Amino acid sequence: MTFPTNKYEICKTLNGNQTYFFRCVGFCSYHKVYVTVKQAKFKKCAAKHCSAMIRTDHPYWREREIKKQLRKIRKSCGSLQLKDTREEPFTIRCAEIYADYVKRSLSSVYEQFFTTGLHEHLTTKETQLVAMTKDEIVGLCDDWIQSFARNNH
Questions:
Q1: How far apart (Å, rounded) are the C-alpha atoms in residues 75 and 56?
Q2: Phi, psi of 15 (to 5 degrees)
Q3: Torsion of CA 68, 69, 71, 77, to 10 degrees
Q4: What's the pLDDT band for 25 if we cut at 50, 70, 90?
Q5: Which residues contact 79 (CB under 8 A, 6 or more apart)?
Q6: Radius of gyration of the chain, Cα coordinates, nearest whole angstrom
Q7: What distance in Å separates the CA atoms of residue 2 and residue 115, rounded to the nearest whole number?
Q8: Quick check: 153 pLDDT over 80?
Q9: For 104-132, how does the pLDDT look when each residue is reduced to its tens digit (9 = 90+)?
Q10: Alpha helix segments (H runs only) across the chain
Q11: Segment 45-80, tens digit of pLDDT
């Protein structure tokens, strides 16, 4: 299956309408039509592990994987009622602090932590960094992300 190279190419969707290719998250090989985010969520294509769904390169799939990882981490951390009695992972706490500081969603900040390698750095240096204040954590995260951007661009 080859997808259109032009992101503005018109594609037929599952409900019979037409939309641009860049709005489609996949192709249903059973129905021989493209599927948008809303349609994929409504039909639960990914949740059912539908073998007919061929994924496109769409940000929806990356966001979904990050949400899954966060759910697993939070589950291993304990339920919300036990949050006071059980300590949450240091990296999640840092991600929450940094997300609050930069006014972005936790999932996007956590994705940035993974792509820059900050997640591994925080995990290995956790014993040394636990005593840091919120401002110091934000400064460390900011410096790490900026140095990563300078070195990779």
A1: 29
A2: -90, 5
A3: 160
A4: very high
A5: none
A6: 20
A7: 28
A8: no
A9: 888 888 888 888 888 888 888 888 888 88
A10: 37-43, 59-77, 90-102, 106-116, 118-124, 126-129, 134-152
A11: 888 989 999 999 888 998 888 888 888 877 776 544
| C-alpha to C-alpha distance for 20 and 148, rounded to whole angstroms | 34
Distance CA(127)–CA(94), nearest Å, equals 14
Instruction: For residue 61, give both structure tokens.
Output: 């799939």
Q: Is the pLDDT of residue 81 over 90?
A: no
Pair 55, 61: CB distance under 8 Å = yes
Tokens of 37: 């985010």
Helix (H) or strand (E) holding 12: strand 10-12
